[in-house]
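Give me C-alpha cells for this 76-residue protein.
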Amino acid sequence: MKLHEKIRFLRKSKGVSQTFIAEKIDMTTSGYSMKESGKRPITTNELEVIAKALEVPATVFFEEEFHVKLNRKSLA
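Here you go.
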C-alpha cells in the first residue's frame, strides 16, 4: 500500500473528512484530495500534521505491516 493510500485509509477509518485535514495543512480540499489520490507529493511537514490530526505517529505510514488500532472518536 502506498503512502497516500495509507493516509486515505486511516482518515476514512477514523471518520475524518478531507476538509478537516486540508484545513490542518492550510490548503484547499481539492488540493488535499490530489495529494491523497497520489497526484501531488506529500511533504514531510504535511505528513507530520496529518499524523497529528489522525492521532497516530507519522512512522505508522512507513511500516511494512500496516496494522493500526483505530479509535472512532470524532476529531472535528
